[in-house]
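$ ./design --mode recover --in tokens.txt
reading tokens...
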């Protein structure tokens, strides 16, 4: 058992003299200490041999190399030599406090504020490896305002600079790392993840911050777990209990089972080296205990900058393939010339003042130096080569933590250089020259370094800019590292991107996907981390009740809407001139929809119109040829001709409704139809009244004789037509019809139509026609039984019955159809009603004229039934 009175084995330190001393607290060893009982003077006692983390020894060597580089550089502090004094924190709060006090005040016994004459005070202190140890140091160093530069402390406390003004961090602000993680997940569209964090204040802060940020950016946390410190015996007991009872109670087992059994593919891990070692140990134990290594499917691990592949001696054979293909944010590093050669020149027997190297050497190479107690058969010769060690134990390339220590030493040196130049430039103003050396009472000297340290800005030997921001943090970003592991425990870091805090938020993270190596189970295919499959184009996401917002169902877009991309929250409506395809993933242009002459329906209606017009011409010819016959002369020959002409125009005006609507055709077609039909119906009304008056005039002493003649018929036609003309004139002068596009009636076509302008005036025109038809029908119906072979009243009655039936059925048909069907209904009504008048009034006369000429005599006209 070692005690504080047994140097050099304990406490371990590394000392090099110099004009100015830089202090440091390393994290090389992990020890168990006896509890202090206070029954005697407190003496720190080790319970067992200290366990070294071999990889952390590079942190010590990075400081030594930086001091060596500065002392050999005549451009920096040319007449001043730097030394260092390094103690270990032992990853223990009590020992961290002791080691910090030893840097400041030392003696045979620990007496604060008492300094041995043989030791100089440090001008600055570098450390420590994690946030907790850094805080323990800060609570003491801040009392004396000694600059402390932490090299791997993330989010120790809120508003760190205000509480500890002497505290600096050679790492970027962790907020950049949080944003980088979110951008990384968004880049790969990973929305269903798990979070694993340390069981500490820092871990809780990470969980709270990340969970909120992920939710704000549409990423769901499937679960969150904490890494608890544990012992090997506790885990074995918990696994045995699980195997016997199938009950999961231990938090360690809960964590590792969630890793093996969960369908989550992506994990965000916030863990320092110690917690990461716990996690690797847990996975290895579960795999070995359950004998189901094959059941572990690949995961994508996203680690924070505290992460490093580091192992204790007892873990040197631990399988690290679980983390193959992992991505981690890391403190930006660059190749430092000469560092690898410096490491390869180390020899455990020649390092003066270094109490760390022999323990490192023995545990890294699993050997013992002669004269040491232990069970190893292998003897350390000092000729072992560092390059033969696996990457989990030691690396020849500078790690992120070592790079931060290297920059921290240079920052102190540049601050000292800046202070020296300032004093030289202002020496005339100073009453007494202050030398740039440390003295027995030079604690105030360290406080004078702050303004120069805060304002430093220089390029290091690797070409990187080093400066602090207003919060005392490194003004830089993070590298994105892809970790590639090999069966021989060697590792390869591949830089695949970077997080630039100065760039725009959407451009802050750059990623080179082609250089990323994924876990072997993914077969170099981008892993998918979603609660469910993507919703393809044509579908939209629908929230599932009772599940996180990242879990959703896929619903087909409704009619008239599309989705162009995967996982759209809402479907988009197509522009008015377009319509969705059947898959609802594309908008297609709508075709123009109107009744054209080339359309089969248009061709049919046009043929009917021309056919009836031809028939009208033939009938007109027959009547002209037989104009002096009794049947033509009966019922006013001029009325007959007028009716034939108006019917011809009725058939021809239906052609105005066919073809693409234009301004002229829209302006004319309804009004011309209304006027022409008014003339036709007026002629029918005049013929009916003429028939009635003719029979009334034949009675002896009748006064109706004077009304019988052309004047009455012409007056009826003119007056009835003028009323319709006035209605049309008002319509055209107030709200005339015009060409219009109906985008909504038909899904896949644009209806080109004539907007009636005023629908009221349109129905006034139809209503007036109906009124004339009803009057004609009523009069003809009353006169249908009048005697005479040439009595037209019964034929007019049938024609008006057909006319009224057609137009009464027209209204509901017209209102229930759209597009060219609506136009076809009106054309059909025009043709049908006109044909009804033609057939009922003129076909019987043509029959007599052509087929029964013997009946076309005057004696038949005066014949009484």
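writing sequence...
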């Amino acid at each position: 058992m070692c005690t504080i009175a047994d140097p050099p084995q304990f406490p371990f330190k590394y000392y090099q003299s110099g004009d100015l001393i830089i202090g440091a607290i390393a994290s090389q060893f992990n020890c168990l200490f006896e509890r202090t009982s206070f029954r005697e003077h407190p003496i720190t006692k080790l319970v067992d041999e200290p366990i070294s983390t071999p990889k952390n020894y590079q942190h010590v060597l990075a400081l030594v190399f930086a001091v060596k580089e500065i002392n050999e550089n005549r451009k920096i502090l040319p007449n001043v030599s730097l030394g260092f004094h390094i103690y270990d924190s032992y990853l223990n709060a009590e020992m961290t406090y002791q080691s910090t006090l030893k840097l400041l005040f030392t003696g045979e016994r620990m007496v604060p504020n008492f300094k041995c004459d043989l030791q100089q005070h440090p001008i600055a202190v570098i450390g420590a490896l994690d946030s907790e140890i850094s805080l323990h140091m800060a609570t003491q160093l801040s009392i004396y305002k000694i600059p402390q530069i932490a090299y791997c402390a993330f989010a120790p406390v809120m508003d760190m600079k205000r509480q500890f003004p002497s505290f600096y961090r050679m790492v970027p602000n962790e907020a950049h790392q949080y944003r980088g993680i979110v951008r990384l997940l968004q880049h790969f569209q990973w929305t269903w993840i798990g979070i694993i964090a340390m069981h500490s204040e820092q871990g809780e802060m990470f969980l709270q911050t990340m969970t909120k940020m992920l939710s704000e950016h549409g990423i769901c946390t499937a679960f969150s777990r904490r890494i608890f410190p544990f012992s090997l015996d506790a885990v074995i007991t918990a696994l045995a209990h699980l195997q016997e009872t199938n009950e999961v109670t231990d938090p360690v087992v809960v964590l590792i089972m969630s890793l093996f059994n969960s369908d989550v593919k992506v994990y965000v891990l916030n863990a320092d080296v110690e917690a990461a070692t716990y996690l690797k140990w847990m996975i290895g134990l579960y795999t070995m205990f359950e004998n189901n290594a094959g059941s572990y499917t690949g995961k994508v691990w996203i680690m924070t900058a505290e992460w490093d592949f580091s192992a204790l001696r007892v873990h040197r054979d631990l399988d690290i393939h679980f983390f193959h293909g992992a991505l981690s944010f890391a403190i930006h590093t660059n190749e430092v010339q000469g560092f690898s050669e410096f490491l390869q020149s180390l020899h455990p027997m020649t390092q003066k003042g270094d109490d760390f190297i022999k323990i490192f050497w023995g545990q890294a190479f699993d050997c013992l130096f002669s004269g040491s107690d232990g069970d190893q058969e292998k003897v350390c010769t000092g000729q072992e080569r560092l390059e033969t060690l696996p990457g989990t134990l030691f690396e020849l390339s500078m790690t992120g933590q070592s790079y931060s220590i290297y920059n921290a030493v240079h920052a102190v040196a540049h601050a000292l250089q800046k202070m020296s130049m300032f004093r030289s430039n202002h020496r005339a103003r100073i009453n007494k020259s202050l030398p740039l050396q440390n003295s027995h009472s030079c604690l105030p000297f360290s406080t004078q370094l702050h303004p120069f340290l805060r304002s430093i800005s220089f390029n290091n030997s690797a070409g990187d800019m080093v400066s602090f921001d207003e919060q005392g943090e490194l003004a830089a970003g993070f590298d994105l590292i892809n970790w590639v592991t090999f069966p021989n425990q060697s590792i390869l870091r591949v830089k695949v991107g970077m997080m630039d805090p100065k760039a725009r938020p959407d451009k802050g993270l750059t990623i080179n996907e082609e250089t990323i190596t994924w876990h072997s189970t993914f077969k170099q295919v981008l892993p998918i981390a979603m609660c469910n499959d993507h919703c393809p184009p044509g579908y939209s996401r629908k929230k599932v009740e009772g599940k996180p917002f990242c879990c959703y169902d896929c619903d087909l877009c409704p009619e008239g809407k599309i989705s162009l991309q995967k996982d759209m929250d809402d479907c988009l409506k197509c522009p008015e001139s377009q319509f969705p395809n059947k898959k609802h993933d594309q908008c297609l242009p709508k075709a123009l929809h109107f009744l054209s002459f080339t359309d089969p329906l248009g061709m049919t209606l046009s043929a009917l119109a021309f056919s009836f017009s031809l028939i009208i011409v033939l009938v007109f010819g027959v009547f002209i040829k037989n104009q002096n016959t009794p049947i033509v002369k009966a019922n006013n020959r001029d009325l007959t001709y007028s009716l034939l002409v108006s019917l011809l125009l009725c058939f021809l005006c239906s052609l105005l409704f066919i073809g693409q609507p234009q301004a002229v055709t829209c302006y004319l077609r309804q009004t011309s139809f209304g006027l022409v039909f008014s003339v036709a119906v007026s002629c029918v009304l005049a013929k009916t009244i003429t028939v009635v008056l003719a029979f009334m005039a034949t009675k002896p002493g009748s006064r109706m004789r004077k009304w019988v003649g052309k004047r009455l018929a012409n007056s009826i036609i003119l007056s009835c037509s003028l009323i319709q003309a006035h209605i049309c004139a008002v319509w055209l002068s107030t709200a005339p019809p015009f060409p219009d596009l109906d985008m909504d009636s038909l899904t896949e076509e644009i209806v080109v139509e004539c907007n009636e302008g005023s629908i009221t005036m349109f129905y006034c025109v139809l209503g007036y026609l109906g009124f004339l038809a009803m009057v004609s029908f009523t009069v003809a119906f009353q006169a249908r039984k009048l005697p005479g072979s040439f009595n037209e009243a019964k034929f007019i009655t049938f024609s008006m019955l057909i006319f009224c039936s057609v137009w009464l059925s027209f209204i509901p048909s017209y209102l229930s159809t759209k597009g060219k069907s609506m136009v076809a209904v009106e054309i059909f009504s025009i043709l049908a009603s006109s044909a009804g008048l033609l057939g009922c009034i003129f076909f019987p006369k043509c029959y007599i004229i052509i087929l029964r000429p013997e009946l076309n005599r005057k004696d038949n006209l005066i014949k009484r039934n």
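exit 0
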